[in-house]
Amino acid sequence: MMDRTDRHERYFLRLIARRALLYTEMIPTGAILRGDRARFLDFDATEHPLALQIGGSDPAALAECCRIAEGWGYDEVNLNLGCPSPRVGAAGFGACLMAAPDLVARCTAAMRAATALPVTVKIRIGLDDDEGYSPLARFVAAIAGTGVTVFVVHARKAVLAGLSPKQNREIPPLRPALVHRLKRDNPRLRIVINGGIRTAQAALAEIGPTDGVMIGRAAYENPFLLAEIAAALWPDAARPPDRAAVADAYGDYVARRLCEGVPLWRMTRHIHNLYRGLPGGRAWRRALAEGSHRPGAGAGLVRNCLRLVAPPRPAAA
To answer: Mean of the per-residue pLDDT values for the chain?
Structure first.
């Protein structure tokens, strides 16, 4: 998610979800090839497994980004074909590429030839006036023909004319049955469903009809949803850390990154919703938002804010 899943957010989520595959925000090929590469690509080793999500439509540029991603240590490269942003579309990539399966096939073929990493794609179930299953099935078949075996499918179509990106997440109806059919018709492909999954029960219900779930904004709004899903999927696994332990560990991370010159607010903004819906959650969020901009504020802010939501821990014997 743009301006959401940066390296600080991913570090925070890894403290909560030990086994989830994390994704970067979508990074255009031009930013990787001509921008501040370290700014866009650096990550902490604890973030593994980690996929680099890129946007682009030039096969040669995408191939070069795949080579860079492999050298940088990523575990997967994901081509975003689902973003409905007008700005992204004007640059010739994102959801608009679902109208150009031949071009996308050339892109994914070039990407796979450039790297040993898995190359995956994120798509919508359709575009604009596309209705029904056939357009989706044809598109997936064209891309699978290049050797791509993993498709992350947002179960809404993208409407590029007349709807904003926010409206595209809300107005087109969810049609998970199309994603389920796609999996039934393509048992050798790995089909991951995305869109509208906001509870652990809903996520668990998708395992079987599909091969997995991708959680986006719901995890940003309620980070511990990932822990709830993990507990439902792997009930015998180790219990996730409690919120206070996560905040405490993230405070250590903040302290290290402050020494490198990272502004405090860039890191604390991601943990505003850690206590969402719980007693003291609003006070926690307000104290972090206000305190992170005060002169002299430091890593101690996170632990100080814990006093608003967590009972004091007993002193060690």
So the answer is: 93
Q: Which two structure tokens, joined as six digits, stand for 205?
A: 């219900």
CB 93 within 8 A of CB 65: no
Overall pTM > 0.85 = yes
How far is CA 175 from its chain centroid? 21
Closest CA to 124 of 165, 102, 88, 152: 152
Give counts: helices (H), strands (E), the chain.
16, 8
Percent of the chain whose predicted confidence (pLDDT) is above 90 = 80
Distance CA(82)–CA(97), nearest Å, equals 8
Contact 114, 106 (CB under 8 A): no
Among 72-81, 165-174, 276-285, which stretch is predicted with the lowest mean pLDDT?
165-174
**Burial group, residue 21, by CB count within 10 angstroms (0-12, 13-18, 19+):** middle
The catalytic site residues sit at 83
84's CB contacts (< 8 A; 6+ apart) are 94, 95, 124, 158, 159, 160, 163, 165, 168
Phi/psi of residue 300, each to 5°?
-60, -15
DSSP E strand stretches across the chain = 22-23, 27-28, 50-55, 76-80, 119-124, 150-154, 190-194, 212-214
The arithmetic mean of pLDDT across residues 270-285, rounded, is 94
